Every structure is written in structure tokens, then in C-alpha cells.
Amino acid sequence: MSDTGAPHTLVLVPTEIERRHLAPQPGFGAGTPCELCGFGPVAAAARAASQIARHTPARVILTGIAGTFDPTGLPVGTAAVFPQVALHGVGVGVASGFVSAAALGFRHWPNAGRSDPDSPDELVLVAPVPPAAGQLLTCCTASASPEEARQRLAQYPGAVAEDMEGFAVALACRLAGIPLAIARGISNEVGNRDVERWHIPTALDAAWLIVRDLVGRPHWDTAP
User: Fold this and answer.
1) Which of 147, 173, 189, 220 has its CA 20 to 30 A from that of 111?
2) Measuring CA to CA, how many Å separate 209 from each of 14, 56, 202?
3) DSSP secondary-structure letter at 165?
């Protein structure tokens, strides 16, 4: 999968279920390590940091599944990279009463956010292919219902998809000074907890097409 002229790239996947599906894909593991980062923001942050230290990559890709807030603009079964990632769930309160760390005046880590001092809950990502039309929202708990999804979208109106690891891996990469691209396959609508109706294989297949392309690029700011 890795072109001889491409920088050393580390691919991270949250769960063994996702990695097991990706393993038969063309180019999987061909000169590019693909490691688990764990489920949820705590495991993902710790594991991403340890894998970065172990592999010393020049760049990182996080892939796996996500839910969509916008099934028209970002349909189930497709995949996208994201221009930025925000965090929901660290702050005060729950549901419609949630107040983010940013609104409370706290940063997750000094100087880890954007240069904009009003956005410490948001990290800019590398988006080397046309990105989704909004941000990825990392949540400590997945939305349990369409109503909860609507509440979160009201709090983060720029979000188009929800995951549980993106911000954590982005922060680990930011602290290590390594660029990160997030390529997520859209398996379901946010708030749909009927896993039997999720399109996980199709979503992961779509995500892998992006990942394989990104790994082979010598530079992420130009075409292959």
C-alpha cells in the first residue's frame, strides 16, 4: 500500500471488528502498520500516544466507522475525511444542559487548540482530499436517540458526523507534532442504535478507498 516515496504512515483503527474487516482489503498491512487505538476517547488518546512513540510515523490516519448527522449530504455507505474535529462530553451537565469545557474557559491542554482562542474544543485536521462539509464531533457517549442527536447538533451546528475517538487521536498527534487525517465510513444515522440496520462493511470499504489513496501520496497537499 505504501509507495516508496511516501512518508512513513501509521494507520489507527478503534476496534478489532473494524480491523478484521479491513484486513483482507487490497494493500492492508503492505509496509504500513495498522494498529488498534481502542474504543472511546480515553483508550484512543492513550493508545495513539503509545503507538506514535513506538512507530515514530511522519503522519497518522485514523479510520473506522461513524454516524452521520446529515444523511443527505453525507449518506450512509459513503466515507469522508474531515477538516476539523470537536469534542462533546467534557464539561458540565448532560443533554441540552451540557456546557463544554470551552464555554467554561478551560482548554484540554495549553496551546493544543486552534489559534482562535474562542475554539479550544476544536482541532484542525489535514484534509488532503475534498473534505466533508462540516466537522467531526467526538463524543464520550454515542447519541442514544434521534432526539439526543438533535440536541447535540443544536450545540455543535457545524457537525456532520459523530465518532468516539477522533478528537482523542487528534490531540495525541497535535502534542506529538504529527499531521493527522481522519477518514471515516458512514455506517448509520446518528441516534440509530439498531446495529442490525447499520451498513458497517459498506462503510469500511468506502473508508479504505480513501485510506489507501492517502497512504500512497508522497504529499498530502497534492494529488498522487
Assistant:
1) 220
2) 18, 24, 11
3) S
